[in-house]
Write a structure and sequence with these properties.
By secondary structure, the protein is α+β, with helices and mostly antiparallel strands. The chain is built from 4 helices and 5 strands. It has a 5-stranded antiparallel β-sheet, sandwiched between helices. The protein is elongated, with a radius of gyration of 29 Å.
Length: 205
Amino acid sequence: MMKKDSSETVSERVKIVFSVKEILSVVLKLTVVVAVVSMMLAVVNTLTRDRIAVNERKKTEEALSGLFPASEFDEIDSIPASTEPGISVESVYTAGKNGVQEGCCVELYVSGFSTEEIHLIIGVAAEEYTVVGVEVISSSETPGVGAAVLAKNGDYLKKFENTSKLTISDIDTVSGATITSEAVVSSVRTAVNIAAVVLGGDNNG
């Protein structure tokens, strides 16, 4: 009887050892799978991020050319700070043709309704600092009214053309897309103020 008990104990121990080995084997396999998947996701993320950056750069170049056709652009080193909340100025480009300064383009990000910022480029003419146009590089605003506010060649963005520092605030916000339209108004006002500093040395904002 004692031998039987001893034999059963050894058998149980062997089972336990094999169970531990099986668990460790599964854990190891899962670890390898997770590591491989993580590496694949990292590669995909890098490729996607690079592709997005390339696409945005292409859109930026197209926007600059659209605002000031046939002009040459120079990115300035010292960017005036924005005094408007929720706005981050990315770049400022001066536009010139045949040695004559035509204006500048202000590239910025502004907080809208979505958690992702709106990426805009705003052209401002050197003469009287009037707005040439507003180009949307990227946006994740709500489909419908919010997205319609930012529609390329849409009615709302066209309202800003030829406006100046004194008339920008006359443009009303859009019902149902107040936050998005207010973001555009603030962005255009910021661009005009920056243009006044870059093109004319006006530091009064």
